[in-house]
Write a structure and sequence with these properties.
This protein has six helices and 17 strands. The protein is of the alpha+beta class. It has two domains: 67 residues, no CATH class; 237 residues, Jelly Rolls. Strands 3, 4, 5, 6, 9, 10, 11, 12, 13, 14, 15, 16 and 17 form a 13-stranded antiparallel β-sheet that branches. A two-stranded antiparallel ribbon has the order 1-2. Helix 1 packs antiparallel against helix 2 and helix 5 crosses helix 6. It starts with a helix and ends with a helix. The relative contact order is 0.11.
């Protein structure tokens, strides 16, 4: 309709008349070319066609974009509702595929990785295993992984309640440290020895009574007003001759320390030994801390070394060390004698005292560092629990 109106308007003009000047480069007219009526009609038609083409093109582009958005929405819906079925593979899956890929032989890829920070080439950053951790706490001193047996677990759980030590400590090498203070005259300590500690004044193995004390210059014993000496007020009192053993079984890997005071003048017939006695009654020990001796049925059968002076009411520190077929006697921290023993004859034993020759003495403190014979000790604790 608009086109006809334009044509009528153009025809009302004279033929060839100039109706205007314009520049529409899109349809081929230039600014310096005059418009005729016919040209104006032609331009109007082409302009209509051009606008229609633009509208069609925009419509097609809109449809394409709409379809693309719809497709993307559908894909996102599928990804969200499938529970990760179409999700991209995780990082670990690519590592797994890489791990499963066979490596060519003879290359650096199949050589074990080592670390310069460790002697054996292992990875220093790796966390220690539970077995190694347990080996540190229950090892036998050789660095081997050795988990606790049932008997060992039982002994560790019940030894303190069986012996009533003043202090107990399980060492990293598997040994135990037991400390006893007999100056307190603890009734629980009466049953930890064989024979039991007696309260009878005529007994050869009893608690000390009032007036039985010693003057010490070794720094052992109870407190006193003097800086370099101690008053002793009590302990295990041993007289005449006899023997007594702690009810605890050790292997032949131990150290025994005892504080000692003698109440009679010393003579050559007297003896006092800190000993390690096997199941058959044979023993090895430190006699007065300066002589190594072997015992049979409570009597000295062989010896090595001499007896140093023993002063009346003077505190002494005795030590016995037993290990790997050798035992050693110490007095006041100094090694005095060494002697060999038959190792197979002492697979295990008990710590104790053997005395004789009319001696009268008191042991105030006892400390043992040794490796428990778990099998025998577990049996002893179980049997005592049944009584």
């Amino acid at each position: 309709m608009e086109l006809e109106t334009e044509l009528q308007s153009a025809q009302s003009c004279a033929p060839g008349a100039v109706i205007g000047v314009g520049s529409v480069s899109t349809i081929g007219y230039h600014a310096d070319k005059p418009w005729t009526a016919r040209g104006a009609v032609r331009w109007s038609r082409q302009q209509k066609r051009f606008v229609g083409d633009l509208a069609m093109r925009d419509h097609k582009m809109f449809r394409s974009k709409s379809l693309a958005l719809a497709s993307l929405s559908l894909i996102l819906l599928l990804l969200g509702g499938s529970g990760g079925l179409l999700a991209a593979p995780q990082q670990g899956s690519s590592k797994k595929e890489k791990k499963d890929t066979p490596k060519p032989k003879g290359t650096d890829a199949d050589k074990p990785k080592t670390s310069p920070d460790t002697k054996d080439g292992s990875d220093a950053s790796a966390e220690p295993s539970a077995t190694n951790d347990k080996a540190k706490s229950t090892g036998d001193g050789k660095g081997e992984a050795k988990p606790l047996s049932i008997d060992e677990e039982y002994v560790r759980s019940n030894l303190e309640g069986f012996l009533h030590p003043n202090a107990i400590q399980w060492l990293d090498d598997g040994r135990v440290k037991l400390s006893f203070d007999f100056t307190e005259k603890n009734p629980d300590h009466e049953t930890i020895f064989s024979p039991k500690v007696s309260s009878e004044i005529n007994s050869k193995f009893r608690w000390s009574v009032r007036g039985e004390y010693g003057w010490s210059y070794t720094g052992t014993g109870t407190s006193s007003s003097s800086k370099n000496s101690d008053w002793y007020y009590g302990g295990l009192r041993m007289g005449n001759d006899g023997q007594a053993y702690l009810n605890c079984w050790f292997t032949d890997d131990l150290e025994v320390d005892a504080s000692y005071v003698q109440f009679v003048s010393h003579n050559a017939k007297q003896s006092f030994g800190v000993v390690f006695c096997n199941e058959s009654g044979k023993a090895i020990g430190a006699n007065y801390g300066t002589q190594c001796a072997t015992y049979s049925n409570g009597k000295i059968s062989s010896k090595k070394g001499t007896i140093d002076q023993v002063l009346n009411e003077h505190g002494l520190a005795f030590k016995l060390k037993v290990k790997d077929g050798n035992f050693e006697a110490f007095r006041d921290g100094r090694s005095k004698a060494k002697m060999e023993y038959t190792k197979k004859s002492y697979p295990s034993g008990r710590v104790g005292f053997i005395w004789g020759g009319g001696v009268a003495s008191i042991v105030h403190r006892l400390e043992i560092v040794g490796r428990i014979d778990a099998k025998k000790m577990a049996l002893a604790i179980r049997n005592a629990a049944k009584k």
